[in-house]
């Protein structure tokens, strides 16, 4: 029997944060594809994204649905989502009528945050000082919304393949009275690891990655960018501070600046991979807030997660369906192969 090779033979890997297994099937990467392909484009329509453009409701001075007008903003701009998934007021559900039919209260606030007045300027195309302004606004939003909410989820859906409804570069911020399911699992697993080892799971894991180095995409003074050993999405990455940090609000000024620098490097590599504006979903996970600000959350380590959908080209994406929805996550490209592709990809944007 042939000797096992993780780049050739199927196997499963354990996601320590989520407590789930991932099937790695490297032998499938070259299978024929005649299914759905995505349209490609280098950038958004610049004419529609200029300040005052009537077709872009996120542009400075634009009129949004419902008659509200955007500020004539010069850098970031935050407003209450016109169609929120969570409201701060409203009646709570009654007690369950049956133990198998369980409900719970859900309160919160949803906001939209535009990164820049130019709608054609993605984070990958922004200068580091402008990315730093975005990070500083993330910190302000977490500080404000985290006072009264147990969880503040900052996330960006970039590109049509990821369901983005407006190409103007922006993110969303959903603050909730409860800790959502995925962060709750992460909290549980980090807490259990800390109880057993008296150290942070992600910092111990980071030490292993720094030792083996085969999944390191970028490293700077304060941050490390890796393709996680258990990555589900083809070019999934994680950003982790080198020191123990609970939340975005705990980052020092130097860490925020170098965070902007490593985000710039990663997103340029993403765009350069297939010479396209690379679609992804990203978000920040840190220690919970609200009532948890007064509790011991030492088990937590701040990190950002990037989930890009493209697999083999700018037009072929990974579909999480079938086996992934009914059994467990599965990937074709190994995390090590994905990391090597990203490592070898230049960090200077191909359009510069």
TrEMBL record:
* Residue numbers spanned by region Disordered: 33-56
* Residue ranges constituting the Galactose-1-phosphate uridyl transferase C-terminal domain according to the UniProt record: 188-350
Does the entry feature the keyword GTP-binding, yes or no? Answer: no
Keywords carried by this UniProt record: Carbohydrate metabolism, Galactose metabolism, Metal-binding, Nucleotidyltransferase, Transferase, Zinc
UniProt biased composition (Polar residues): 46-56
Reported EC number(s) for this entry are 2.7.7.12
Ranges where the Galactose-1-phosphate uridyl transferase N-terminal domain occurs: 4-180
Query: Quick one: a GO cellular component term?
Result: cytoplasm
GO MF annotations, alphabetized: UDP-glucose:hexose-1-phosphate uridylyltransferase activity; zinc ion binding
The organism sits in which domain of life?
A: Eukaryota
Active site (record annotation)? 170 (tele-ump-histidine intermediate)
Q: What is one Gene Ontology biological process annotated in the Swiss-Prot or TrEMBL record?
A: galactose catabolic process via UDP-galactose, Leloir pathway
UniProt pathway annotation: Carbohydrate metabolism; galactose metabolism
SUPFAM superfamilies noted in UniProt? HIT-like (SSF54197)
- Is the rRNA processing keyword given for this protein? no
Q: Which Pfam families match?
A: GalP_UDP_tr_C (PF02744), GalP_UDP_transf (PF01087)
Q: Which InterPro entries match?
A: GalP_UDPtransf1, GalP_UDPtransf1_His-AS, GalP_Utransf_C, GalP_Utransf_N, HIT-like_sf
Instruction: Please name the Gene3D superfamilies in this protein's record.
Output: HIT-like (3.30.428.10)
The Swiss-Prot or TrEMBL record lists the needed cofactor(s) as: Zn(2+)
Catalytic reactions of this protein: alpha-D-galactose 1-phosphate + UDP-alpha-D-glucose = alpha-D-glucose 1-phosphate + UDP-alpha-D-galactose
What positions belong to coiled-coil segments? none
Protein family: Belongs to the galactose-1-phosphate uridylyltransferase type 1 family.
What name does this protein carry?
A: Galactose-1-phosphate uridylyltransferase
Origin species:
Oopsacas minuta
